[in-house]
User: Which sequence fits this backbone?
């Protein structure tokens, strides 16, 4: 008697490289043994039948459909959604919170973050030269899966309207026009609308 669980365990036990393995196996066979070929044909026919099922195709279509993340406002597909797909950088103050001067010249400027407080800061050599010295050490403000579920973001109290902001729906297009800040680093508050 098949159950979802028993079949899922069986599927998990298969090598993930099965497609490559089958092709390699066929090519290295010393002779075309009809019994062996029949086993391979049975596997391939069953696989073809599976992927042609409407339920299977529906799942693939859903996985490839473009969706809108209600946390970072980027576009994603279920296929590409992983544990660090949704990343949001900290948002820093425009003005340095402290500077270290040396002989009348500013050596290091520190800019505190709006989202995580003054403890998280980006450091710049001089001031206004865009030579940031600790970008490698700064982690992301948020890192996780993209989501379409506003309730999920609300439940974790992630919306701060600073760098994690709610969707801004355009009344004409019905689409979210909230700025996606995923690819900017570091992000200063003057650069966001
Ligand atoms: Zn932050
Ligand atoms: Zn996201
Ligand atoms: Zn949005």
Assistant:
């Amino acid at each position: 008697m098949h159950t979802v669980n028993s079949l899922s365990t069986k599927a998990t036990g298969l090598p993930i490289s099965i497609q490559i393995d089958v092709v390699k196996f066929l090519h290295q066979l010393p002779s075309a043994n009809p019994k062996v070929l029949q086993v391979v044909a049975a596997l391939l026919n069953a696989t073809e039948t599976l992927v042609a099922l409407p339920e299977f195709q529906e799942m693939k279509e859903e996985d490839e459909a473009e969706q809108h993340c209600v946390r970072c406002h980027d576009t994603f597909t279920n296929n590409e959604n992983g544990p660090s797909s949704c990343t949001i950088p900290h948002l820093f103050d425009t003005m340095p919170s402290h500077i270290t001067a040396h002989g009348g010249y500013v050596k290091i400027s520190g800019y505190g973050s709006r989202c995580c407080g003054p403890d998280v800061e980006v450091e710049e050599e001089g001031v206004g030269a865009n030579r940031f010295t600790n970008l490698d050490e700064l982690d992301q403000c948020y890192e996780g899966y993209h989501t379409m579920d506003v309730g999920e973001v609300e439940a974790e109290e992630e919306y701060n309207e600073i760098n994690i902001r709610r969707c801004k729906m355009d009344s004409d297009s019905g689409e979210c026009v909230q700025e996606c800040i995923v690819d900017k680093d570091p992000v200063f508050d003057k650069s966001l609308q």
